[in-house]
Amino acid sequence: MAGEAKPEKEKVARAEGEKGPEKAPEKLPEKAPKKKLTKAEKQAQHMDRLKKTAVACLAGVIAGVLAFYVDSAPTGTTVAGTALGILFVLAAIVFQKYVFFALKMDYLSLTAKDWVFQGFMTAALWFITWTLLLSTS
């Protein structure tokens, strides 16, 4: 009788959400080792990242200045001016693709993470520029 109570107790424990016996973890396939880059390749990649960051920052500053001067109402910023400023920053983010093309940079290799970075940097510099111009006028 004692042997029969034990399996039933295990069924109840599993039904209540308790863990049963642990399974062996599955082995993930090993990744291929990264190719070691030469100093010249590292410098080229670094310069490419710096150019992309500079383009994002410059686009943000230009969008901020445009947003300020297009909506230069003497009473302050209007709701329409704010919407126009947001459109300027969105246009600046999209326009970067064409700037990369003009600078002969490989914009097709940019991943979603890279575009999020480009968008964030542009929006941050747009916001800072526009805020400084609005607060000093």
Description:
The chain is built from 4 helices and no strands. The protein is elongated, with a radius of gyration of 28 Å. It is mainly alpha-helical and 137 residues long.
Write the layout of secondary structure elements.
Layout: H1 2-15, H2 39-70, H3 79-102, H4 112-136
What key attributes describe this structure?
137 residues, mainly alpha, 4 helices, elongated
Outline:
The protein is an all-alpha fold and 137 residues long. The protein has helices at residues 2-15, 39-70, 79-102, 112-136.
What about the largest sheet?
none
**Low-pLDDT sequence parts:** none
Q: Give the helices and strands as they follow along the chain.
A: HHHH
- The rough form would be described as elongated
Number of helices: 4
Average the pLDDT over all residues and give the rounded result.
Answer: 80
Structural class: mainly alpha
